From TrEMBL:
SUPFAM superfamilies: TrpR-like (SSF48295). GO terms for molecular function: DNA-binding transcription factor activity; sequence-specific DNA binding. It holds the Pfam family Trp_repressor. NCBIfam families: yecD_yerC. PANTHER family: LMO1763 PROTEIN, TRPR-LIKE PROTEIN YERC_YECD. This is Trp operon repressor family.
Length: 97
């Protein structure tokens, strides 16, 4: 865990996220707390991570997601040297998601 982001405010935000019960509630909360571009960036990174796990090339990922090679590289670094958060979530998601 990155101690730089471990603050009471971040704890409160994560506690709030953990209260969300379904996708509609997620949409309502995240549309209020994030800009459209922030949400799209987060979802793009998640899609990039999924495609990297599927062994897609940077070119394939860039073409499908519109992500820059810098973004793809950052996500790849998180997958390889991060806190395994992506892997934890991917294991919990149904295969078709």
């Amino acid at each position: 865990m990155n101690k730089k982001i471990k603050t009471p405010a971040v704890d409160m935000l994560f506690d709030a996220v953990l209260t969300l019960e379904n996708q509609d509630e997620c949409y309502a909360f995240f549309e209020d707390i994030c800009t459209v571009n922030e949400l799209l960036s987060l979802s793009q990174r998640f899609e990039v991570a999924k495609m990297l796990r599927q062994k897609k090339t940077y070119l394939e990922i860039a073409e499908k997601t519109g992500a820059s090679t810098a973004t793809i590289s950052r996500v790849n670094r998180s997958l390889n040297f991060g806190n395994d958060g992506y892997d934890m979530v991917f294991k919990r998601l149904p295969e078709d998601k």
